[in-house]
Amino acid sequence: MTKEDCFFLGKIVKKFSFKGEVLVKLDTDEPELYENMDSVFVEVRNNLIPFFIESSQLHKSDLLRIKFEDVDSESDADALIKSDLYLPLEFLPKLEDDQFYFHEIIGFKVEDQSFGHVGIVKSVNDMTAQPLFEIDRDGVEILIPMNDDFIIKVDKPNKTIIVNTPEGLIDLYLNE
Q1: 116 within a domain of the structure (yes/no)
Q2: Domain boundary among 91, 125, 154
Q3: How far is residue 5 from each of residues 56, 92, 144, measured CA to CA in Å?
Q4: Residues near 19 by Cβ (< 8 Å), separated by ≥ 6?
Q5: Torsion over CA: 36, 8, 10, 101 (sign)
Q6: What 3-state DSSP class applies to 88?
Q7: Contacts of 158 (CB under 8 A, 6+ apart)
Q8: CA atoms within 13 A on the CB side of 81
Q9: Based on CB atoms within 10 Å of each CB, which residue in 13, 73, 104, 151 is the most buried?
Q10: Total count of domains within the chain
């Protein structure tokens, strides 16, 4: 299993008990979906290692308390602190037609209702207050906020995103 076949679930942030339990900060709006998993991949020295889950339960809204099989002491748990957790992509909940996961839209064409063809989505920057489409237009990077008011349609079968951006937004990147 490689990272490309998986999605980031969260990070082990601290140990919880002297019996090897850990607390995971989940990267999701719906932590309850991940409360009863059987296993998860833990990134250890840049390798994804399957860990089987003995028990897990939600702990204070967005933390998941996990007891892994064969992690039975504080030192076992310490070795896992700050490790990232991953699950295979097929474990992602299915979304409505107009919803998407960021990884799904990489390579989609972006068309603006007024401007026309904008470019190809090369990534999504979610490190800002509002996520941004990072679009490649013949070597020029164009950033468009992922704002519900701008996104008209996500056409998954045709790998196209139709947007309606404020006048002049795209030109800002092209007239430098």
Answers
A1: yes
A2: 91
A3: 24, 11, 27
A4: 67, 72, 73
A5: negative
A6: strand
A7: none
A8: 12
A9: 151
A10: 2
Give this prediction's pTM. Answer: 0.68
Residue 24 corresponds to which tokens in the numbers above? 């995971």
Q: Of 91, 122, 144, which residue is a domain's last?
A: 91
d(C-alpha 137, C-alpha 37), whole Å: 41
pLDDT in tens, 89-146: 888 877 777 788 888 899 999 999 999 999 999 999 988 888 999 999 999 999 999 9
- Candidates 87, 54, 88, 86; CA nearest to 71 is 54
**What six digits make up the tokens of 148?**
């519900």
- Does any domain span residue 96? no
Q: Which of 82, 114, 99, 106 is nearest to 12 (CA)?
A: 82
Q: Predicted confidence band at 33 (pLDDT cuts at 50, 70, 90)?
A: confident
